[in-house]
From TrEMBL:
Residues 125-297 form the AB hydrolase-1 domain. This is AB hydrolase-1 domain-containing protein. The keyword Plastid does not apply. The chain crosses the membrane at residues 12-29. Pfam families: Abhydrolase_6 (PF12697). The lineage of its organism: Eukaryota, Fungi, Dikarya, Ascomycota, Pezizomycotina. Keywords: Membrane, Transmembrane, Transmembrane helix. The keyword Cell membrane does not apply. InterPro entries: AB_hydrolase_1, AB_hydrolase_fold.
Length: 402
């Protein structure tokens, strides 16, 4: 093949690729159903041949997990797991083993639920997972063990599959997932009787956006509700920024090829339905807490990210931390560059463990913890998360004295 023919073939392939990419974008951004599948990946269950009503398949003990369902106000049924901490399970193993198994028709009759509800010192993590998969997918089962590792006789976990995920009915949307999280929080406080001071919100990836939205929504009501803390692992600032780097299933870019053309990227971003403006909502949450009367602490936020996360790059956590800190410094906040300079002088270096930056006011604490390793999901099962969960609970008082 001569040079001219090679050039023509190259141009032809390039043109076909460009046309194909923009046809893909047109379909993705103009058809809401395709867009939702690309963002939420709820059709990718990763547990196709497993029954998620049998948690023992993932190495959990008999009746350590109680599968049950939650009904949302808009008629969706959510599949949920209540996971007992290992130390508490050991104390009540005999009666738990004898208890009814399978999905609870009435969870209030189960031994595990009674151990949560009837202990005035029990603590509860509301677990909000990331995109794709189900309650039993990937690193989620090991991460449930990380939730209670900091206090294995006290910290319960309740996790849900959002609408459209796993066995849950409906289809995901930004408002829909917020409704799901509100339903979970309402169940925890009303049905289980756990006050918000004994609840920590944990979110990973997509779940960080859901958790921030939940905390912001409840804090800005006329009668605000504030939880003991929020732990955010591998967060993003908002979907519009994320599209410049995000790849569907880690392989297919959405708007990444347009990132050298900011105006074109901004134009296509206007078609995205699920915005998830986490940095703005977290900042609004912090400002709301800072403006509340009283001297007692109002919030405890921990942001965790791994440097080797190739799904959501760790600098997004810098954006989230900056916006949160800036909101705590009225009236003008702080610029990103000034924030980075301040962090460089005050952050704690942990060698191979990464580093920690912390900002504290009279009303709360904002921590950014960057680990060297942990990828996107694996880090959920690490001690850095266990300690962050425990620290969040301890922001409302020593665990042993509750």
């Amino acid at each position: 093949m001569n040079t001219l023919s090679l050039l023509r073939s190259t141009v032809r392939v390039f043109c076909i690729t460009v046309v194909g990419y923009f046809c893909f974008l047109h379909g993705l951004l103009k058809i809401p159903l395709l867009q939702d599948h690309a963002i939420y990946l709820h059709g990718v269950t990763l547990t196709w041949f497993q029954d998620i009503s049998i948690p023992e398949q993932w190495g959990l003990l008999r009746n350590q997990v109680t599968p049950f369902t939650l009904a949302t106000p808009d008629g969706v049924t959510l599949h949920a797991w209540h996971i007992l901490p290992l130390g508490l399970y050991h104390q009540h193993e005999e009666e738990l083993v004898k208890d009814t198994e399978g999905i609870a028709i009435d969870i209030t009759e189960r031994v595990g639920f009674k151990l949560l509800r009837d202990d005035p010192k029990s603590l509860l993590v509301l677990f909000l997972h990331g995109a794709a998969g189900t309650l039993g997918s990937g690193w989620r089962p090991p991460s449930y063990r990380a939730m209670y590792a900091g206090a294995p006789d006290k910290i319960h976990t309740v996790a849900i599959d959002y609408r459209g995920f796993g066995s849950s009915t409906g289809a995901p949307s930004e408002q829909g997932l917020l409704t799901d999280a509100l339903t979970l929080a309402g169940w925890a406080m009303q049905e289980a009787g756990i006050p918000p001071s004994r609840i920590v919100i944990f979110g990973q990836s997509l779940g960080t956006a859901v958790g921030i939205s939940l905390a912001h929504h409840l804090a800005t009501r006329p009668d605000p509700t504030l939880f003991a803390g929020i732990v955010l692992v591998a967060p993003f600032a908002d979907v519009e920024l994320l599209t410049a780097t995000y790849r569907i299933a880690g392989a297919v870019p959405i708007l990444g090829p347009l990132s050298p053309f900011p105006r074109l990227l901004a134009f296509f971003n206007t078609f995205i339905l699920s915005k998830w403006p986490s940095r703005d909502k977290l900042a609004a949450f912090v400002k709301e807490c800072e403006d509340m009367p009283g001297d007692d602490p109002k919030y405890h936020i921990t942001i965790i990210h791994a440097e080797d996360d190739y799904d959501i790059p760790w600098p997004y956590s810098d954006q989230l931390f900056w916006h949160a800190v800036s909101a705590s410094r009225p009236p003008d906040g702080i610029t990103f560059d000034d924030m980075e300079e301040e962090k460089a002088q005050t952050k704690t270096m942990l060698g191979p463990g990464g580093w920690v930056a912390a900002h504290q006011t009279a009303k709360g604490v904002i921590r950014e913890e960057i680990a060297k390793w942990g990828l996107h999901d694996k880090i959920m099962s690490y001690p850095i998360v266990s300690l962050a969960v425990r620290r969040a609970f301890e922001s409302r008082g020593p665990i042993e004295s509750r």
